[in-house]
Amino acid sequence: MNTFTNTFETVTDDYDKTLDSLRLDEDADCIPDTDIFEEIPTAELIKKVKETIIGQDKAVIRICSFMNMEIKKINYNRVHRNDYDFIPQHTKNMLITGPSGCGKTATVTRVCEEFGIPCVMVDASTKVATGYKGNEWYTMISDAIRYIASNKTNGNMEEAVQMYNKGCVIVLDEFDKAIIPDEGGRNYSRFSQGCLLKILEGATFTLDGLGLSNINADDQDSIEVDTSNTIFIAVGSFANYLKIMKVSAERELRQQMADAVNRLDGEIEKVRANKEAGVIAIKKQEASLEQEVNSLSVQLAKLQIEQKETLLKDMRMEESLKFKLAGLQGDMEHCRALISRCQAAWADCNDDYRVHRIGFVDSAAKTSEEVIHEGDFATLERQARMAADSKLEEIDQTNQKLGLLEKKIAEKKKKNQEGMDELQLKIEKINLKMKELESQAWGYDDTEANLTAKKAQTKVDYIGRIEKLKKVGPSAITLDGLTKYYDLTPELAGRMGAMVVLDQLKEKDMIRILKYSDRSDLSQTAKLLADFGVNLIIPEASYKLLAKMAIKENVGARGLASVLDQIMYRIFPLVEGEGEKEVILTPQCIRGKGNPKIKKLDEKSKEYPEWHMRDEIPF
């Protein structure tokens, strides 16, 4: 029993120790709230940043969204780094460009302040590639740690490294000057970008490797600096980009225009050559058709001559038959007349029979015709009738021959006419074909005209694109353009997850900055003056004048600070002094042609008496 009790107590103690150990491990794995960054809704973040950054709404939205997403990635990695299925979220980098003084670094700094993530400015133009004399790219990590140590951790290097490893934003200012295109064909720029790329892809350093060995630390080799939670933001105006891009793009467009015009010229020449070859072929075809027409015309002429000869022969035979027929008809009429006379004589003979019988003969009956003289009228009539029948039969035969001959002549005429019509039709068809060929040879063909018009339109289009190219502003900067015209390597461009282009500030933007930005030089100056009893008032006309003067400085929002400093340094001796007062910056004062209006506050009534003007500065 005692043995069992001792064993049970031993097992229980081991279990309790194991459970306590697990609890300690679980507590060790828990990430305290202070080890992650505060997450802010993007809409709220944008609203806060817009209170400071004026006139860059689109850029602010993109930068805030980008930073919010990257902060969430950093927090995710720190919270879930001990999960068994943990896959790290890789942070991305950003490229910000825009004219000088448009608020590039100010926007990033303002966003970082809201998240509480360290933001370190590094002059990228001073960094060199590995192996060259100067500050190599990795020194920006040591610059960031030194900045954090001196500004965040009171010089404690270990805490500075921990804060950096938690997350840091390194702004590569003047980045455009670090990757300026090489001259003379050297590859230094690309080599330098390759060295930077290795750091952007993620790297681990030791304090000694970063040149921080002179800073006190217990074990410098065991302290590692990890860039996996570092967000690199490259910032630059790329002032020469537009000039380089315009020159190169215009050269490309003009070359493309020349190529397109040359191609169209070749097509036009080809059309002309084909047209000339077609005209030659058509002329040859016309000559062949003309020769065929001549041959058919000769055949037609021969046919016409043969027809005339044949018809002439037949017509002569027809005339001969007609002449014979006329003779036969004459003979027929003679026989009929003779028969009639015989019949008449026979009738007379019957009437005077007695007279004739006793020797009295009619004197009219005594003709030269033998038969009639003999008085044999019956025989004469019979002979006449036989002759008439013979003539009639011959007339019928002649008419039959004449009919056959006329039919033959008609058939020949028809046949010859059909032959001539056929030849004439062929000739007409060939003539029509020749006219079509002539029309085709000399007719209007719009192919060349269309190509010529297309050539002119191509020139107009390219010239229009060139003129449009000359008017492009900073908003035309793209990552693709930087890799094409500014020698940015595609690999480094690929590491830039986003690119934001800030706009050139206009006069209305300057006025809004003066009025509404909570961190403008004017608002800060007004707060400073209010601290020792000066209420600064600026009329609307003075706002506009300040904005115009700042625009002329050509340095963006920095021009506002420059102009304001010049005015404040001049009028400060006038507004300084005991007692509360109200100071109005009039347009004349801003132009330097007068002093501000100053109204002192009466301590008893707390009201302002008459305006007090001071004409001279008491130096």
From TrEMBL:
Organism: Dialister succinatiphilus YIT 11850
Listed GO biological process terms: proteolysis involved in protein catabolic process
Classification via Gene3D superfamilies: 1.10.8.60, P-loop containing nucleotide triphosphate hydrolases
Coiled-coil regions listed: 250-318, 388-440
Gene Ontology MF, one: ATP hydrolysis activity
Keywords for this protein: ATP-binding, Chaperone, Coiled coil, Nucleotide-binding
Origin: domain of life: Bacteria
Ranges of residues in domain AAA+ ATPase: 90-274
Stored InterPro entries: AAA+_ATPase, ATP-dep_Clp_protease_ClpX, ATPase_AAA_core, Clp_ATPase_C, P-loop_NTPase
Full protein name: AAA+ ATPase domain-containing protein
Pfam families in the record: AAA
Clp ATPase C-terminal domain sequence ranges: 505-598
